[in-house]
Design a protein that fits this description.
Layout: E1 13-19, E2 26-32, H1 35-43, H2 52-63, E3 69-76, H3 81-96, H4 105-120, E4 123-126, E5 129-132, H5 133-140, H6 144-153, H7 156-159
Antiparallel strand pairs: 1-2, 1-3, 4-5
Helix pairs in contact: 5-6
Length: about 170
């Protein structure tokens, strides 16, 4: 059973979650040795610049007159608290980021990498020929990234016909 915020003490290490008060979804997973004060830091928006998605979400909640629910997922005690705490936090993020739309930067980086992997293996059919994005880019004489940008911005026909880079000599 999860501990409540009132059970936390200044010396307790814990892995915690911030839940959306409307949907009950877990939106953030963190680790702290100071549960009560860490929750207050979140509510006072004392988060780092890299936690911007979290800050934006907290601001939206505040505008609605609401606060996230603070839930202790597990408590840790023992001589190796800090190292164990960080390992447990990473494990909790890994387990939860696929089921919940977490705002943790670690989770967002994993999702970005997953999108990149999908892009690398994306098959494109054009003029009766199907190839991966990298093969089409080689054939067109442009980078994979440039082809991806073109596919995002233009219809297939235009994306697959990049302008010539040859200089016209007058």
């Amino acid at each position: 059973m999860a501990a409540t915020e009132s059970e936390l003490t200044w010396s307790t290490c814990c892995i915690y979650a911030l839940r959306d008060p409307d949907t009950n979804e877990i939106r953030y997973v963190g680790a702290t040795t100071h549960g009560k004060s860490r929750m207050l830091q979140h509510l006072q928006l004392k988060t780092s610049k890299i936690e911007r998605p979290l800050s934006d979400w907290l601001i939206l909640l505040r505008q609605k007159g609401k606060e996230p629910r603070f839930e202790v997922l597990c408590k840790l005690t023992g001589p190796l608290q800090e190292r164990l705490l960080l390992a447990c936090e990473r494990d909790a993020i890994k387990r939860l980021c696929w089921r919940h739309d977490l705002l943790n930067i670690q989770c967002n980086l994993r999702k970005i990498e997953e999108r990149r992997r999908k892009w690398r293996s994306r098959m494109i059919s054009y003029q009766g020929k199907t190839q991966c994005c990298a093969a089409w880019a080689r054939e067109l004489g442009i980078s994979r990234e440039r082809l991806r940008q073109r596919l995002d911005a233009y219809p297939l026909e235009k994306a697959m016909n990049p302008p010539s880079r040859r200089k016209v000599i007058a």
